[in-house]
Structures are given as C-alpha cells and as structure tokens.
Amino acid sequence: PAVLGSPPEVSHGDAEAALAAAPVSVDGRYRTPRHSHAAIEPHALTTAWGDDGSLVLHTCSQMLGGTKLNLSEVFGLKEDKIRVLSPFVGGGFGGKTLWSHELIAVAAARLAGRPVRLALSREDVFHVTGFRTLTEQRMALGAREDGKLVALIHTGETASVYHSEFPEQISFPARHMYAAETLLVGQKKVDLDTIANTSMRAPGESVGTFAIESAMDELAERLGMDPVELRIVNEPDKDPESGHPFSSRHTVEAWRMGAEAFGWDRRSASPRSRREGDWLIGTGCAGGTYPYYQMPGGVARIRLFADGRAVAQMAAHEMGMGTATVQAQHAAARLGLPFEDVTFEYGDSDLPAGTMAGGSSQTVTIIATVTAAADELFKDLIRLAGNDSPLAGLKAEEVEADGGGLRSLQDPARFETYASILARAGRDMVEAEGKSPMPIAMMKYSMHSFSAIFCEVRVNAVTGETRVSRLLGSFDCGRILNAKTASSQFRGGMIMGLGLALTEEMLFDTRSGRVMNPSMAEYHVPVHLDVPAIDVIWTDIPDPHTPLGARGVGEIGITGVGAAVANAVYNACGVRVRDLPVTLDKVLAGLASTASD
After folding, report:
1. What is the C-alpha separation between 222 and 227, in angstroms, rounded?
2. Mean pLDDT, rounded, for 504-518
3. Nearest-10 crossing angle of helices 483-502, 561-573
C-alpha cells in the first residue's frame, strides 16, 4: 500500500550491486521503540446537548474540523448543529485528535440528558490515545574514497494496528537528503492487534533519520572523513526521488554556520580521546529534513472596524507554537495597522473552517488564507470608497495597506484611512472572507525544512550514564517570522529529541496488550536536569515559493537529534548503539565488549 500517498518503494539503478562493488561501505540494522506523546496535560473534555438537539464539546483538540466532521458522522447530526471549542490544547504532538473517550462522553451526555465531564487518567492516556510505533530499519551506504555515495539503501518495517492510517514513514528522509548514484528506499507495514499507533511529532522523519544519520557517521569514520564534510559532499542539486528542483535549500549554509558556532573544528575524530575523571567526552552531528505542507480548503475572515481595530478569525489551534502572536503580527502588517490593534481569534469551530495543527503546516496555511481574506477586504474597501475618494478608479492590486489605510502604489499621495472610508459609507465595520489557495508550488518543487544538529555528551566510564552537555541546532526553514516563538519551537523539538535518544521507551506486553510503564514515573521524558543550554540559529533565507517565504519549524527540531546524540556517544566512548534509547545498560555492555577485545 502507499505510504501517505507516496509509493512504498523507490529505486534508481541497481543499488545492491553498487553497494557490493563500492570501495567503502556500511550495512547495519537500527531499531526504535514505541513512544508516547506524553503531553503534560492529559486529555479532558466537557460536553452537553442542547434542547434543540445541538451538541457542544469543550475539548483539547488539534483538529477542530476533523472532530466536528466525525461527530457529525457518528451521531447523525448536521455539522451546523455541532460546536467544538478548544482555545487551549495543552500540548499535543499529534496525540490530541478525536479518540474513543470523546465519543463515549458525548453518548453518555445524550443518554443522561445532562452535561458530562471526563478527564483521562495518565494511565488512560497511554492506553487510549495512540503512540509512535516501533521500527526496524536496514541502512546501507556505499561510497567512493572521496565520499561520494554510489549506493543508498534504506528499507525497513513498521508495526501498526489493522487499517491504521499512520505507517510511520521512516523511508521519507532517505528519499530527499543525499545525492547517490543508485537508490533503493522502501518500507513495509506489519499489522498487529495492538493499541492504535498515530501521528507523533515528525512521524517517520524523527526515527528514520536515526538510521541514515547514524550510518553516515559510521561511513565517515571508515572513510577517515569529517562527518560534516561527508554530508556536504553529498548535497543534491535536485530531489533524488522526484527529480524536481528544491524550492529553496540552504543546508550547506546551515552546516557551516552550525559547525562554526559549535566549535566543531576542535573535535577529535578518535573515540575516547577526551576524558575528565570518570567522564568520557565526545561530540556528534546529524542532519534532518521535514517536508513542507500547505493545506487547501480553509477559510479566514477579517473584520475591520471604524475605530481602527481589526480581528482575523479562523478555526485554528494554539498549543504552544505562538499561533495567536504570529497571525496577529502578520494580519497587522498586511493591513498596515499597529500590532496592538489586531487580534487573531481561533479555537472555535463556529469560526470559518480552519486547518489542522499538524505537519508543521498551520502557520503558512493560515498566512496564505488571511492574505486571501485581506485581498477580498481591499476590493470591498475600494468599492465602499466610491468616486469621492482619492482611491477612486484604482484596483485592489494597485494599492497597499499603510498607516491605517490604503495607498496607491504608483502615487503615494493618493491615500485614505479606513476610518474615512467607513465614515463616508456609513459603516461601523466591514468584513471579508478568503479561501486557502491551492498550494501549486508543492506540485512543482521539492519543499522541505532542514536541520543540522550538533551535540556534546559526557559518558561515565564506570556507570554508563550519558549526559548531554551541549546541544546546538542550525536550521534552514525559510524566513523566520517571529524569533521568540520559533526559538521555542526549535528548542522544544530538540528536548523531545533528547527523550527519543536517551530515555523514552513505551514497554508493551504483547500477551496481555497492556502498556507496562503507563506513568510519568516509569515512562521517562527529559526533565530540567537532563536538558543543557540549547543554542538555535537559522539561515533566515526566504523561500520564494511559500507565503512570506516561511516553512514549518514545529517538527524539524526533533529530527536528527537521536542520531546526533548516538554519534556523540560513540565519539565519547567507542560504543555504537543502534537500538534506541541509548541507556546505560547498552553503553556498559559495549564498554565491557570493548575492554574484552
């Protein structure tokens, strides 16, 4: 079956033959376990039926529209009879979509004839709301002595509940990251009778990059080549899978910037070459990629008031990524108004239909839709202005918003404020709606965000404990719209990557179907003492084919961190861990094996 609409296998040339003939090669298997979203706030809701048969659901959801649609189908209601409110999601990472407890609560409210409130316990969350599935991956690379790849093979298996829509697309990064003369990429999905797996932050990419970026590190060592230079040598000039040009790709700049800021030139290529007492110190790096998505089908509304205020509205979501701030910032700039006079309203399905918060797509999708609404608003304002306005005779594309009004692009002296236009028309407010445009660029270009992750670790030679002491992410994500909110997203993703690398593993009893560690005491996510100072930098080069030149930042932060940590562990102590997480028992076993050798 297809993997998220893409063929499950892609091949160019005879990769197996090229691998066998390559002067230098690596061929290994890499494994990742099940992961839980583990948002601090558990899932909770309040729901009630009205006397007229209408339904209201207060919940924590990152897909208002999908929740409304599914409730309509399950309970046989028209969508205009349903209202879903979710102003505060409380962390989601892909886990706060529609689940069975919401359907049960709505049904209970109907049967009881009174409102119902339901909050899942932490153990309920582990069993009811899905997880990231385990993976097993084969990664093989063949290269010439100069480091140029002649073969790239990435195959593997993921597990899934029957009929799952989430195959964990582990093969996607290898399709786009490096130029190779031959390519074989594919994956299979094994159906199991288990808890439903679902989308979790950077599904596929976060764990798929663990395999390819660990193998690149192993190949660099065999070549006697710097790992950063190996990646730069294999930078593609077009997409390896499709042959399409990249909309914008500045990964070399990201690698160079990151290496300089991290002090990569001071790294020793020899494992176990740095030591402070019992602590072995090492550094590692890894790259990452996450696709660009812009969703069609949404609608945005802008209301402009005579007192100079404006409100942009869309049934969107806020779960920590700064949606309200960035969208108010954009709407203010688009309308030529002060930031403090513009509000962005979201979190209510009664607002114009929005996009889901997923796939690092929400910000650019809303921006494109609000832009479309602003274009319609300008048309309406020019019509309202009439023949007595300085703008008479102009078209919407011939004006720009500036200083609380519209100004002619050709003749700046032709200007009128919104207040003046509305006063002449006898209006207190004007509003307009715009639809999300079709993302035509996605059909013409290969579009991705990219990361270059650098990590320093300290591994205790006695206990096997690993501590990350420094972490830096260098990102190429187009134009950064808000440095503060983007930095928060990058850092949050990188911290989640530390959990993926070192601590997180959902233990599952295949006989009973039970999660064996369903608590925050036993499922270990990074806490303050686990997290070092994290530096983030970015190229800030606008993508000419996206709204405002921006691409997604929410999921690229986690992508590549697992491999960067594992590579740093190897550089520190000489133990190569290919089975996440990198726990002290695996490090100790490796140290013991090294000592016996």
Report:
1. 11
2. 92
3. 50
DSSP string, 352-398: SP---S-TT-HHHHHHHHHHHHHHHHHHHHHHHH-TTSTTTT--GGG
The greatest distance separating any two alpha carbons of the chain, rounded to the nearest whole angstrom, comes to 92
Name the residue among 105, 159, 106 with its Cα closest to residue 130.
Answer: 159
Find tokens 């035509």 and name the residue.
440
Matching residue, tokens 């991956």: 137
Q: Which residue type does 294 have?
A: Q
For the stretch 538-569, pLDDT in tens is: 999 999 999 999 999 999 999 999 999 999 99
* CA distances from residue 161 to 166, 192, 446, 514 in whole angstroms, order as listed: 9, 5, 31, 14
Q: Which of 165, 55, 70, 37 has its CA nearest to residue 558?
A: 37
Q: Residue 16 — very low, low, confident or very high, per pLDDT cuts 50/70/90?
A: very high
149-161 sheet: strands from edge to edge: 9-12, 183-192, 149-161, 135-143, 24-32
Q: Which of 373, 378, 377 is CA-nearest to residue 345?
A: 373
Residue 271 has pLDDT above 70, yes or no: yes
DSSP code per residue over 530-574? G---EEEEE-----TTSGGGB---TTTTTTTHHHHHHHHHHHHHS
Specify the residue for token string 């040339």: 13
Count of Cβ atoms closer than 10 Å to residue 241 Cβ: 19
Q: For tokens 């990472």, what's the residue?
A: 93
164, pLDDT greater than 70: no
Of 205, 213, 241, 555, the catalytic one is: 555
Q: Is 483 helix (H, G, I), strand (E, B) or coil?
A: helix
Reference 124, options 100, 103, 88; nearest CA is 100
Q: What single DSSP character describes residue 339?
A: G
Closest to 308 in 3D by CA, of 423, 449, 408, 200: 423
Question: 232: which residues sit within 8 A by CB, 6+ positions away?
Answer: 252, 255
Predicted local distance difference test score (pLDDT) of residue 136: 97
Residue 349: closest CA among 63, 106, 97, 52? 63
What is the average pLDDT across 360-371?
97
> What residues does 301 pair with on adjacent strands?
313, 433
- Angle subtended at Cα 239 by Cα 235 and Cα 242, rounded to the nearest 5 degrees: 155
Residue type, 231: R
- How far apart CA 299 and CA 433 sit, in angstroms, is 7
Is 555 tagged catalytic?
A: yes
Backbone angles phi and psi of 577, in degrees to 5: -100, 120
CA distance 162 to 298: 31
pLDDT tens-digit readout, 89-110: 989 999 999 999 999 999 999 9
CA 167, CA 160: separation in Å to the nearest integer? 7
Whether the CA torsion 409, 411, 415, 421 is positive or negative: it is negative
Q: Are 357 and 89 in contact (CB under 8 A)?
A: yes
Amino acid at 205: E
Burial of 411 (0-12, 13-18, 19+ CB in 10 A): exposed
Q: What is the pLDDT of residues 173-229, one digit of tens each?
A: 999 999 999 999 999 988 887 778 899 999 999 999 999 999 999 999 999 999 999
**Alpha carbon 170 to its chain's center:** 15
